[in-house]
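Quick one: structure tokens for this chain, please?
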Amino acid sequence: MATVSRYARASRTDVFTTLVRAETYPEWLVGCRSVNSIDETWPQVGSRFHHRYGLVGPIAIADTTEVLEIDEGRMLVLEVRARPLGRGRAEFVLDDEPPVGGCPVTRITMDETPLGTLATLAPLLDPLVQGRNIASLNALVAYLNTPAGSTSPDQSEAAASPQTRGSDR
């Protein structure tokens, strides 16, 4: 099992809302290149979204992610597919933490377990999956903390830099 946790300065509701908005996955989930379609019943158990994934270079492969379990506002369990590599079970659990400076704090725990034929390779895969999931949760926290109207943390910083503000020269 590759389990990682991160803390976000966001309410549990805001974090959960992001997790169930499949269209956000390319913004923060390492390897997710695009979301092509989302079932109308998403995020109900059994519903899917169709995506393209790839880790290196321009090659991307079409596959699906399905909801296995959902506890509104607290937990989301997905079956993730990355064929031909295999499939896995990804569980997101959200816990309230004490506020910091008046801001809500949520602990996000992500646990990913290989399924099927990949399960036997778990001891070898766990360090790689754990590294990917650390990067994904770091990106999720950055996404949650991106100011409204920005598409990425880098663009919001650029928008505030003196080089892009003509009146501040």
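The first strand starts at residue 2 and ends at 8.
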